[in-house]
């Protein structure tokens, strides 16, 4: 698809005329922006700021993908996901964060890494972005001691075909897991290609990380 940058520059500029922070928490902030609309009016837009995140589709030599099952309090239940985590370590590169999360959550290390897809979690209200990696050449590194929800975490390697079936039966509902599993399946079928790990994303969440850094921590 052609670059839309030139066309965008000729269209209305949605400039922010004012902004107010309503809530500033440990992992999210809520701000309300007054945004210039076409026709000369303004409208209030609520934005949930969140760290960027990394997600790992770890696939072994037998074409099994690593799933984790953990409790998610907003849903009030345990769900199947891919290993993932927030980019909340100051100065940490996305790939390093993905490698850390794969070890912490699944006890694995990978010899080969590539990018599957980049995601905007729910751009209607949050700036959260996720980069989904494909990790291959897996070795067991042992899980470090976990805390909180991760202490209850279940790790399972399932056939990729089974994971795809779990998406379509509704057993896997986590959006990043759905995207990652289907992306791996598409790549394996020759319908897509991975990217190099240093390929830049179109967008990445930065506001909450900057906010956290300005207050001296996470």
From TrEMBL:
Location of the Nudix hydrolase domain: 49-180
Protein origin, superkingdom: Bacteria
The UniProt record lists the keyword NADP: no
GO molecular function, one term: hydrolase activity
A GO biological process held by the record: ribose phosphate metabolic process
Keywords associated with the record: Hydrolase
GO cellular component: cytosol
Name the record gives this protein: NUDIX hydrolase
A Pfam short name: NUDIX
